[in-house]
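Hi Q.,

Before the meeting this afternoon, I wanted you to have the magnesium ion prediction in hand. No need to reply - just skim if you have a minute. The sequence and ligand are here:
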Amino acid sequence: MNVVLLGPPGAGKGTQATKISREFGLVHLSSGDILRAERKAKTALGRQAQDYMDRGALVPDDLILSMMMDHIARPDATNGFLLDGFPRTLAQAEGLDARLAESGRPLDVVVNMEVDDADVTRRLTGRWSCPTDGRIYQEMYSPPKAAGVCDDCGSRLTRRQDDEPEVVTQRLSTYHQQTKPLVDYYSHRGLLKRVDASGTVEDVGAAMVRACRG
Ligand code: AP5
Ligand code: MG
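Predicted structure with the ligand bound:
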């Protein structure tokens, strides 16, 4: 099965992607996580992406499309993939469709995670992540057992630079202008499933598994 998770920043894409990819045996491909790894490794792509990410703007389509198609072509993705944060523009969605059609591996379902701007802003300003295993926490809704420390591996949790309030506002504006049109794009193709993502992590997760099962 090949799945896309759509939704605003802070909708819970990363949180639910871990669960869904495990449930259905999919490889989880988060464009944001891949870009952050490229930045950490100081690659040419990481350096090109840096300024856009810090401003809450989108990295150019051609860079993203080739980066993601490279990951989709890897052997671990042949049994199915879950795309998180990609595509994010109409040009990316059309490019993805064309490339997947060439390789005969079409998308099966696009899950749109619906949650309003006030909720996602609250979530993002309290987000902490584990730099070692990627586990995501929220200081009000899903805090770690010991403050600032990953429950699973004991690493010190970190905050993302783009979770500063003014960057969150810019990311939401970018989302509304450039990514929200993809809801109609995939709806017209008969692939869209809508999930209310404003409930608890458990309730949203159960609704998303149902949406993927169809
Ligand atoms: P990216 O990393 O993709 O960020 P994003 O889409 O803005 O989404 P987030 O990762 O912030 O949120 P999420 O939906 O994963 O939520 P999470 O599960 O963490 O992209 C970063 C940047 O990279 C972009 O701004 C852009 O510059 C660049 N980029 C990436 N992809 C690109 C592309 N395709 N094209 C161009 N540029 C691209 O949850 C958030 C918080 O809420 C957590 O603390 C979590 O614990 C909590 N939470 C989750 N679910 C719930 C719940 N149900 N109730 C309460 N709290 C919850
Ligand atoms: Mg994420």
